[in-house]
Amino acid sequence: MVKEWLTTADGAPVYDNQNSATAGEFGPILIQDVHLLEKLAHFNRERVPERVVHAKGAGAHGVFKVTNDVSKYTKASFLSEVGKETTVFARFSTVAGELGSADTVRDPRGFAIKFYTEDGNYDIVGNNTPVFFVRDPLKFPDFIHTQKRDPRTHLKSPDAVWDFWSLSPESLHQVTILMSDRGIPATMRHMHGYGSHTFLWVNDAGEKTWVKYHFRTNQGVKNLDVNLAAELAGTNPDYHIEDLHNAIEAEDYPSWTLCVQLIPFEEAQKRPELLFDVTKTVSQKEFPLVEVGTMTLNRNPENYFTEVEQVAMSPGHLVPGIETSPDKLLQGRLFAYGDAHRYRVGANYSQVPINKPVSPVNNNQKDGAMRMDNGSTSINYEPNSFNEVKENPAVKPAGYEVHGEIGHYSYDQNFYTQAGDLYRLQSDEAKERLVQNVVDAMTPVSKDEIKKRQIYHFYQADKEYGTKVAQGLGMEDVIKEF
């Protein structure tokens, strides 16, 4: 029996809190979904002044160099020819911890790159995992609330974490990665990075190709033993920040090879659930990695606050030749990231030196806090009869057709196949560590109901996976009920 109905801040009842309103089942999110906009906008304003997520991180300057010709897929100028170099700034971070938290906790790592191109800044804002816990932005504020501190005790809450995950089975793929050896990278230099979402590349002829980004570390993947990670959290909580800084100072410059999966545009009609559901990956056997270039980090920041803290990256920072997809979580991020920057850094965050593009900026934005360059002209509107600053028809986005009835749709309910495949791919020793990490994390959960629900998800992904978790928690009898 429902005791109270979920409402908006104004008291209006909420119809669906699991799925955003979209134009058709696989179409983009509609701005008329005021519940989603209210939820994301309020979420962006819940913490002052550090980032709500990715609060603690490290950054460095570097260069990206094209090593393979991909101009037949995209007209993006910084990818136009082999040998072309573009300056970049990279930021790596933990996700859930506060600004003073330890670097070596079990947590995904943010992996964000700002490219200073001649057509404006282009940002790839992803993680060190190719998937995420949720696939609809409507659920993101709730998810992060479970990762933060309990509003009553101000302590981290295993109950909240596992209650949410057990009620959101789409999280299982990412949970499996998080609880595996990959959950604690040895350093920021020894982890891969991903754009996570699917994006759209468009060439000069207007031909479209879906693309997924993979940054492959050239240092090799290395992870930390859980006991060593716990020790470092107490003895050197800034271990990852220190490692990146010292490596660059010693001229041991870390680098990553950017590869992409190129997926024919028509595949979106055949398998939209794979392309636009960020909880799933696209097979590299079917769509193998194609090398694009190399990113090398070769200069440390001169001032942590002005560079690492104030850098403002967003998947909405795009350049001609690169467009978005109808991935719902990506669509929500297009709004939420810019809104967070305007709240946290200010309306003029793009004029802060670390965010300032190398290309000319011509717009009619004026005034506001911390305005660096207000311009001398009296013209702050368009169209006008006094200057030649006009829109450019040549950079019209290619776009894509959408259709369907407006409604709140969920992606498919196949939560288990890829998580099970991932479990079975690991060695016996890696499986044992994964299970032990899960057991250790779930042991403090106070309600057996939550544990049982999560064990069910593990069991559906792989019977051995679920059985071993149940045994580790002393709940093997629940397996009989599945």
Keywords:
482 residues; Catalase HpII,  Chain A, domain 1; ten-stranded antiparallel β-sheet; two-stranded antiparallel sheet; 14 helices; globular; oxidoreductase; Catalase_clade1/3; heme; EC 1.11.1.6; hydrogen peroxide
Question: What report would you give on this structure?
Answer:
The model has no long low-confidence stretch (mean pLDDT 94). Helix content is 29%, strand content 17%. The two termini are 26 Å apart. It has two domains: 311 residues, Catalase core domain (Catalase HpII,  Chain A, domain 1, Beta Barrel), CATH 2.40.180; 65 residues, no CATH class. A hairpin with a 2-residue loop joins strand 4 and strand 5. The longest helix has 17 residues. It is built from 14 helices and twelve strands. The chain is an alpha+beta fold and 482 residues long. The protein is globular, with a radius of gyration of 23 Å. This is Catalase. It is an enzyme of class 1 (oxidoreductase). It catalyses: 2 H2O2 = O2 + 2 H2O. Keywords: Heme, Hydrogen peroxide, Iron, Metal-binding, Oxidoreductase, Peroxidase. Its cofactor is heme.
Topology:
Elements: E1 21-23, H1 34-44, E2 57-66, E3 85-94, E4 109-117, E5 120-127, H2 140-147, H3 158-167, H4 172-179, E6 193-194, E7 199-202, E8 208-217, H5 226-235, H6 239-249, E9 255-264, H7 267-270, H8 272-276, E10 289-299, H9 304-309, E11 322-323, H10 328-344, E12 406-408, H11 417-425, H12 428-442, H13 448-461, H14 463-472
Antiparallel strand pairs: 1-12, 2-3, 2-10, 3-4, 4-5, 6-8, 7-8, 7-11, 8-9, 9-10
Helix pairs in contact: 1-10, 2-3, 3-13, 4-11, 12-14, 13-14
